[in-house]
Amino acid sequence: MTKATEDPAGHVSDEGPGEIPRHVAVIMDGNGRWAQARGLPRTEGHRRGMESLRRIIRHASGIGVGYLTLYSFSSENWRRPAEEVGFLMSLLRFFIRRDLAELHAERVRIRVIGLREGLAPDIAALLDEAESLTAGNDGLTLVIAFNYGSRAEIAEAVRALAVEVAAGRLDPAAIDSDAIGERLFTAGLPDPDLVIRTSGEQRLSNFLLWQSAYSELVFSPVHWPDFDEARFDEAIREYNARERRFGGVGARQGVR
Ligand code: IPE
Ligand code: IPE
Ligand code: MG
Fold it and tell me: How many CB atoms lie within 10 A of CB 101?
């Protein structure tokens, strides 16, 4: 199992990633610090971060990841300077215009989670177009979390349930975990098996709080623009070394 592998980008790792998790979610962090460390403006970090994103999408698709969720803009990122927010919006426009046709040709299915309200109408339209064009594809499901915040998502689901109860269409006794899960932006998607955060920060920052209840968390010290295919495989190897128990005792612990 120590066969050297070389991916299309030419990055070499000593081993393959091992068993591929079905759903990998990534908190792409560290663009600003990557740039600052090089005396560049933060926006340059974001531009380079988008190149990382493109590589990782292709790599994940190539190694057979079923679902890849990328945290691209949080509902709290509006707190940044207007110029930076504007740049991030333009990057999304640029990404969809440039890459949508190619992703579609690679049978990638795009799903966007987050609030459409508050986005510029042309961005909301591009996101709709990306979803509808690729809805019938059977390759990697690429979930773009944009203007996404987990607490607002859960609040929205609870509000929807309350409306149904008030209208007499739902018995409060029927509200269970599935009833909430079905009303989240991620309805129909499996929970992430692995959540990766780059840049050394060790927190979730309002990302998939409900869905990551039993996800394995892997923190990489590398800033997102430097996060490449080999680092992605490394995170999967770390995932494979973990024992998921889901509250049980686990297979590795012998019964005595
Ligand atoms: C992640 O990089 C990208 C977004 C949050 C949009 P940051 O911009 O958060 O970079 P740091 O954390 O300031 O280095
Ligand atoms: C989380 O990163 C959001 C995205 C990666 C899009 P942040 O950089 O916004 O998170 P905090 O502020 O460090 O917690
Ligand atoms: Mg950050």
Answer: 11
For tokens 């923190």, name the residue. 219
CA of 223 to the centre of ligand 1 (A): 9
pLDDT digits (tens, 9 = 90+) for 111-122: 999 999 999 999
In the block, tokens 């692995």 appear at: 194
Nearest CA to ligand 2 atom 2: 29
- What domains can you pick out in the chain, each with its CATH number? 21-149+191-240 (3.40.1180.10)
Contact between 195 and 217 (Cβ < 8 Å) = yes
**Residue to probe by mutation, ligand 1, list 27, 28, 33, most atoms within 8 Å of CB:** 33
Would you state the pLDDT for residue 203? Answer: 98
Check whether 78 is labelled as a binding-site residue.
yes
| Residue 157 to residue 171: CA distance in whole angstroms | 16
Amino acid in position 108: V
Distance 206 CA to ligand 2 centre (A): 9
Measured in angstroms, how far is the CA atom of residue 171 from the centroid of ligand 1? 43
Flag whether the pTM goes above 0.85: yes
CA–CA separation, 235 and 68 (whole Å): 14
54 contacts: CB under 8 Å, gap ≥ 6? 95, 99
Q: Known binder of ligand: residue 147?
A: no
For 45-54, what is each residue's pLDDT tens digit?
Answer: 999 999 999 9
Q: Give 5-12's long-range contacts (Cβ < 8 A, gap of 24+).
A: 7/59, 7/62, 7/229, 7/230, 8/58, 8/62, 9/55, 9/59, 9/228, 9/229, 11/228, 11/229, 11/230, 12/230
